[in-house]
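Researcher: Next entry: Fumarylacetoacetate hydrolase family protein (Aeromicrobium endophyticum).
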Amino acid sequence: MRIATRSGRSVLVSPDGSSTVDISDASDGRFGPLAHQVFDDWDEFTAWASGASIDFAAVGDPVNLEDLGSPSPRPQQIFAIGLNYRDHADEAGLDYPDSPPVFTKWVGSFAGPVGRVVLPAATVDWEAELVVVIGRRADQVSAAEAWSHVAGLTIGQDFSERALQLSGPAPQFSLGKSYPGFAPQGPWLTTVDEVSDPDDLRVECRVNGEIVQKSSTGRLIFSVPTLVERLSSVLPLMPGDVIFTGTPSGVGGARTPPRFLHDGDVVETTIEGLGEIRQVCVAASH
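Model: Predicted structure:
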């Protein structure tokens, strides 16, 4: 099952990704219309959706990726994990962490899968990431039980303004990663049962067609189940909560010399089985 948001309303996406059906309309108002309402009733919704017979060809609206928003646009909590790939820690010259370094990206940075990202400075970097959305409240959940609390997976970019992120005696990770448009996600949420191996998905980022990141979620230091276990041991994870799971090696700031995004650059991010998102960089003066 694939779920997206369009004009603020939750929609089901056809298996071929070509059309959508409004969830509230299709369920006669039982679920939705807002995404958080679907996640709050996740068990009941998935039971209904698995048995619903929807003729997308007859009643669906054509998909326009530019009209879609982030799959969970109003999470109660947003978690972002730093330094979670061994190759990224290696390129940064840092030791592997013993526990997940956690920060946040504020919801004002959320955006849909296709659009523009305004560059507020000359040091904006790319970070391709697998994003997890919680479907069932997770409180003191073990890694063995973690996947059953996940609604699904989507693609994200953790755009980062490095100068602000690393400024001051206490780095400003959350602020440097939360400019408008710095957290595009999509194109939709894919439920875990639709993914062949959720623990080992190919991740790729291209800038102007050049591959700059290429890895697999199988190289995560802290896997998705481990992240759910560690986070839920501290506080409950709520339906609709979003977790950015970290980025692999290949970021611009770790290159010699450093490489950052410029006006007109096109950033494309793909994850195996989840689709692709695409952002065009625009100078702040435009």
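Model: Note for the record: The chain has a mean pLDDT of 95.
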